[in-house]
Design a protein that fits this description.
Chain lengths: 356, 370, 137
C-alpha cells in the first residue's frame, strides 16, 4: 500500500446537512417560515441517493440519520485515520437545483453560516468551499464577497452540470471574484438537473448518471478553455472534484487536435489546451477510475505529462475505496507526497493562512 | 484572390499503397431531386412547402456553423460541379482508387434521420437506402451501404431493416449518437432486435438531432465545442447501451462507434467497471463487467485519430483497447479527414497494421471477407 | 541543387498563386504585394495539398471577443484540417511556443518532453531575376 505521508491535505470531503432543521437558525425569518408553511422538504439531489452503496461506505454509516453529520464524526472517521492535517469540506446540499434565485441565495447563506458555526469553528483541521446561488451570478458574487473575509473559505463550489456551460461569459463575475480573493474555483460532480444529465438525454439508471459525470467534466473543461476563461483570468485555479482523471489525456489530445484546425474560431486561445490545464487546472484523486494494474496507471500518468495535477482526496463518505487505501498501491513515494501535500498547497493559496 | 492555376501533380500509384477498408464514407446528393425517384408526390410537395426540419432552429444549415462549407475538404469539390461527395467518379479518382480502398462503408448523412415529422423521416430514410443501391453500390463493388433508419420510430425502423436484411449490399444499420433518449433506452430496442436478427452491426455515427443540449451542462457557444463534444455524446450513448443491457439482451449484436475517435474508450471501460461493481444491485440484468461487453461487442472507427505528443502514447491506448477493435476510416470528404498513409504514425507490427487497415472491418461487416 | 524558372515575373497577380512541380516536388509560388514566396505543397500535418487552401488573414484576440484581423492575404489554411500557415515564413499558428504572447504562471512539468509536432511548412526561397521567378532546389 502506498503510505500516506503525515499531514496530508484531503481536498474533497462531504459533511451532510443532517436535515433542513439544522439550517433553520441560519435562515432569515421569511425563509424560515417558508420552509415550514410550504412544507419544503430536504434539498437532497438525486446525484447521491441517500442509501445507495456509493453515497456512504458501510462502515461510515450512522446508527440513525445522515452520515458525516457532525464535526466529531468527521474527525474520527475522515481525518484521524489518514493523519490528515487539513480537509476541505464541500457541501452538496441541493441548493443549485432550485429555480428561485432568492430562495437559492437564502439557502446558500444559511449553508455557509452553518458551515462556519458547526464545522470550521469546531474542528481546526477543516476548511470549506463557499456554496453559491449560481441561479443569479450577481447574488453569487455577493455571497463570495460576504464569505471571503473568513480565510477558512478556500474555494467557491460549483456543480459540474448547471444551466449553461461554465466557460460562458455571464459566469465570469464569479471568476473575477475568485481571482480577487485568492479563492480556487471548485467544480464538483453533480447536476442541477435543469438539463438532462447526459448530452444524449435522461438516463434510466443511477449508474449511468454517476459514470456520466466524467463526460460532464470533459465538456466543462472544453468550455472553460475555449471560451478563454484562462486568457481573461490567467491566475485562476480551477479544481475538478470527484471527477475521475484517467479520461484527461485522451480528452486533451482530441481538444488539441481540433484547436489546431479551428483556432480561428477562438483566437484568444493562444496556448495548447494541455498547457492551460497544466498551469491552471487540478483534479482531485478520488474516485480513481483507473486500470486494474499499476503499470498501466503509471503509463497513464506519463500521458498526463505533469505530476502536479492530482490533489489527494478521500471523497468521504462516498464509497470509493476500502479501509484507508485512498492512494493506489505502488505509487512512488515522491509522487505520493506531491499528490498529498505539495500539489494541494500550491493550488489553494489560502490554505496556509490559518485563522486563530 | 483565391484563383488557383494548377499544373498536374504526380499522384502515388495505387500499387504502392496497401489495401484499406474505409469505415466511414459520406456520399452526398447533388440536390434535393436526387431522391425523387423514391419519394411520393405527397412528400415531394411537402418538402417544397414545409421542408424537413429536425430538432434545431435553422431551415437550412446546421445548428453550429461549420468551419468550412459542407464541413468538407476544400479540395474535394468535383470538377463537374456539385457538393463534395456527390460524384462517384471523382470519389473514385480522388479517394477510392488513390488510397486503394478495398471496402468502403457508406454512411449517408442528411438523410432524414431525426427529422421532426415521423412519416417524412421514414420516407426520406427509405429513399436514401434505395439511392445508395441505385447510385453507389451497384456502380462500384467496393462500396457497401448502411440501412438508414428513422430511429425515433423504432417500429418503422425495424421494418426498414427487415426490408434489406437479405440484400448483401447492406452491411450495417446506421444510427446517430445524439438521439432524443440515450441509445440504450427501450424505445430503440426493436431496432436492435431487427439488426441482430439480420446479422448486421449497428453503426452509431456522431451528430444527430435529438434536441438535447450538446453538453449535460447546457448549450456551448462554439463549433469547436460541438465537435469535441461528439466524444462525450458517444461515451454517454455507449454507457447507456451497456447499462440498459442491450448487449446482454442480444448476445450477437455488434456496435460500431463512428467518427468520434477512440482514445476515450479505455478510461470509460475502467470507470464503468469501477462504479458498476459498487452499484451492481441496481442492474441485476447485467451478468458481466461492462468492459467485457465493450471488449467483445464494440468496435471503433479510427477517425478522427487522436494525435498525442509524443505519438507513441497512442500505442498504449491501442493496446488497452485492443488492436482488433479498430476499423480504419477516413470520413471522406469531410475536413477532419484521416489520410491512410499518415494516419498511423506509430510502430505497429505487420499483423497489427493488417487488422487495423482492413482485417477488423472484414470481421465485422458480413460478406466482406477476403 | 539547381535553379529552375517557375514563372514569368508578371504571371502571378498580386494575391494569386501558381502551383508547379520542380524535380518531382509540388510547390506553390505566392505573390504577396509584389514579393514572392514559395511553399512545398504538402502539409506537414498529414501531407494534404496545403497550397490549394484558402488564403486569408491572421485572426488574433488579446481578450475573448476582441477580434483583431490583420495581414489579409498572408495566411494560408490547409484545405484539409484548416491549419494556418504564414505564407512568408511557413510557420504555423498552432505552435504552442510560437504564439505565447503573455506571461503565464507556468511551472515546468516533470517529464515533459519537447513538444513534437509538424508545425512548420517547408519554405522555398524565390528570387526575381529580370523577367523570371527562380527557385533553387
Amino acid at each position: 500500500m502506498s503510505l500516506l505521508p503525515a499531514g496530508a491535505i484531503d481536498c474533497d470531503i462531504h459533511p451532510s446537512v443532517p436535515s433542513v432543521e439544522a439550517l433553520m437558525p441560519y435562515l432569515e425569518d421569511h425563509w424560515r417560515e417558508q420552509v415550514i408553511i410550504r412544507g419544503i422538504d430536504e434539498l437532497n439531489s438525486i446525484s447521491y441517493p441517500l442509501n445507495s452503496p456509493l453515497t456512504c461506505r458501510a462502515d461510515w454509516k450512522a446508527a440513525s440519520g445522515r452520515p458525516a453529520a457532525s464535526a466529531e464524526v468527521v474527525a474520527r472517521q475522515a481525518l484521524d485515520p489518514f493523519g490528515t492535517s487539513i480537509a476541505i469540506a464541500n457541501c452538496l446540499y441541493g441548493i443549485q437545483l432550485l429555480f428561485s434565485e432568492d430562495m437559492a441565495a437564502a439557502f446558500a447563506r444559511a449553508v455557509n453560516d452553518w458551515m462556519v458555526k458547526e464545522w470550521l469553528d469546531k474542528e481546526p483541521r477543516l476548511r470549506a468551499s463557499i456554496v453559491v446561488p449560481t441561479q443569479n451570478v450577481e447574488m453569487a458574487v455577493d455571497e463570495i464577497n460576504r464569505c471571503a473575509a473568513d480565510k477558512r473559505f478556500v474555494q467557491i463550489l460549483l456543480l459540474v452540470m448547471g444551466d449553461t456551460p461554465l466557460g460562458r461569459r455571464h459566469h465570469w463575475p464569479i471568476y473575477a471574484a475568485a481571482e480577487k480573493h485568492g479563492l480556487a474555483v471548485g467544480i464538483h460532480a453533480g447536476s442541477a438537473y435543469h438539463n438532462p444529465p447526459t448530452p444524449v438525454g435522461w438516463p434510466s439508471y443511477y449508474t449511468e448518471d454517476y459514470v456520466g459525470q466524467a463526460q460532464a467534466f470533459q465538456t466543462q473543461l472544453t468550455s472553460m478553455i475555449c471560451e478563454g476563461v484562462f486568457t481573461k483570468f490567467p491566475h485562476l485555479k480551477v479544481v475538478l472534484l470527484e471527477s475521475g482523471f484517467t479520461w484527461l489525456p485522451a480528452h486533451l489530445w482530441r481538444l488539441t487536435k481540433y484547436w489546431r484546425g479551428l483556432r480561428m474560431e477562438i483566437p484568444w486561445v493562444d496556448r495548447a489546451p494541455g498547457d492551460i490545464v497544466r498551469s491552471n487546472v487540478r483534479l482531485s484523486l478520488q474516485p480513481v477510475d483507473g486500470p486494474p494494474d499499476l503499470a498501466s496507471l503509471m503509463k497513464l500518468f506519463d500521458h498526463m505529462q505533469s505530476d502536479e495535477l492530482l490533489l489527494f482526496s478521500t471523497d468521504y463518505p462516498h464509497y470509493q475505496f476500502d479501509g484507508t487505501a485512498a492512494i493506489p498501491d505502488g505509487l512512488p513515494a515522491e509522487l505520493v507526497r506531491k499528490i498529498a501535500i505539495d500539489n494541494p498547497r500550491a493550488t489553494y493559496a489560502r490554505l496556509m493562512e490559518t485563522v486563530g | 484572390m483565391n484563383e488557383v492555376r494548377t499544373q498536374p501533380i504526380p499522384e502515388a500509384t495505387v500499387a504502392s499503397k496497401v489495401a484499406v477498408a474505409d469505415g466511414d464514407i459520406h456520399p452526398a446528393r447533388q440536390g434535393p431531386k436526387d431522391y425523387h425517384p423514391w419519394l411520393s408526390q405527397r412528400w415531394q410537395a411537402h418538402l417544397d412547402e414545409y421542408g424537413s426540419p429536425a430538432r434545431q432552429g435553422w431551415q437550412v444549415g446546421p445548428a453550429y456553423p461549420k468551419s468550412q462549407p459542407n464541413a468538407s475538404r476544400r479540395d474535394a469539390y468535383p470538377p463537374e460541379g456539385g457538393r463534395p461527395g456527390s460524384s462517384l467518379g471523382f470519389m473514385q479518382q480522388q479517394h477510392l482508387d488513390t488510397n486503394n480502398v478495398a471496402l468502403g462503408i457508406l454512411n449517408p448523412l442528411g438523410s432524414g434521420q431525426g427529422v421532426q415529422n415521423p412519416e417524412l423521416s421514414a420516407a426520406l430514410c427509405h429513399a436514401t437506402n434505395e439511392w445508395q443501391l441505385a447510385e453507389w453500390t451497384s456502380k462500384d463493388s467496393r462500396l457497401r451501404a448502411s440501412v438508414v433508419v428513422p430511429y425515433e420510430d423504432a417500429v418503422a425502423s425495424a421494418a426498414e431493416i427487415r426490408r434489406y436484411a437479405g440484400n448483401p449490399a447492406f452491411v450495417q444499420v446506421l444510427m446517430l449518437s445524439r438521439t432524443a433518449e440515450p441509445l440504450g433506452s427501450r424505445k430503440y430496442w426493436p431496432i436492435y432486435e431487427a439488426a441482430a436478427e439480420a446479422g448486421m452491426p449497428v453503426g452509431v455515427h456522431a451528430f444527430g438531432y435529438g434536441g438535447n443540449p450538446v453538453t449535460p451542462g447546457g448549450w456551448p457557444s462554439y463549433y469547436i465545442e460541438e465537435m469535441t463534444g461528439h466524444s462525450q455524446c458517444q461515451q454517454a450513448a455507449l454507457t447507456s447501451l451497456i447499462i440498459e443491457g442491450v448487449f446482454e439482451r442480444w448476445p450477437t449484436l455488434k456496435m460500431v462507434m463512428i467518427e468520434a475517435g477512440f482514445a476515450w474508450a479505455p478510461s470509460l471501460a475502467w470507470r464503468l467497471d469501477k462504479h458498476w461493481k459498487t452499484l451492481r444491485s441496481e442492474t441485476p440484468h447485467l451478468k458481466r463487467l461492462p468492459s467485457a461487453y465493450m471488449r467483445e461487442r464494440v468496435w471503433w472507427t479510427t477517425q478522427p485519430m487522436e494525435e498525442p505528443e509524443p505519438r507513441a502514447h497512442l500505442l498504449d491506448t491501442i493496446e488497452w483497447l485492443g488492436w482488433d477493435r479498430l476499423i480504419f476510416a477516413t470520413d471522406y470528404p469531410h475536413w477532419d479527414f484521416d489520410d491512410p498513409a499518415h494516419a498511423l504514425p506509430v510502430r505497429a507490427t505487420e499483423e497489427q497494421r493488417r487488422a487495423f487497415f482492413l482485417g477488423n472491418a472484414r470481421n465485422v461487416y458480413r460478406g466482406c471477407g477476403a | 541543387m539547381s535553379r529552375h524558372v517557375v514563372a514569368t515575373a508578371h504571371e502571378i497577380p498580386e494575391g494569386g498563386r501558381k502551383l508547379v512541380t520542380v524535380r518531382g516536388r509540388p510547390i506553390a509560388i505566392f505573390n504577396l504585394k509584389g514579393e514572392y514566396f514559395g511553399l512545398l505543397n504538402r502539409c506537414p500535418h498529414q501531407g494534404g495539398p496545403m497550397c490549394e487552401g484558402l488564403i486569408t488573414g491572421l485572426r488574433e484576440a488579446p481578450m475573448p471577443g476582441d477580434y483583431v484581423y490583420s495581414r489579409a492575404g498572408e495566411i494560408l489554411r490547409c484545405p484539409w484540417h484548416g491549419w494556418e500557415f504564414d505564407i512568408r515564413t511557413g510557420q504555423s499558428y498552432c505552435d504552442p511556443e510560437r504564439i505565447r504572447t503573455r506571461f503565464y504562471p507556468v511551472e515546468v512539468a516533470t517529464g515533459q518532453t519537447v513538444v513534437e509536432g509538424p508545425y512548420v511548412a517547408e519554405t522555398i526561397p524565390v528570387s526575381v531575376e529580370e523577367q523570371y521567378l527562380v527557385v533553387e532546389m
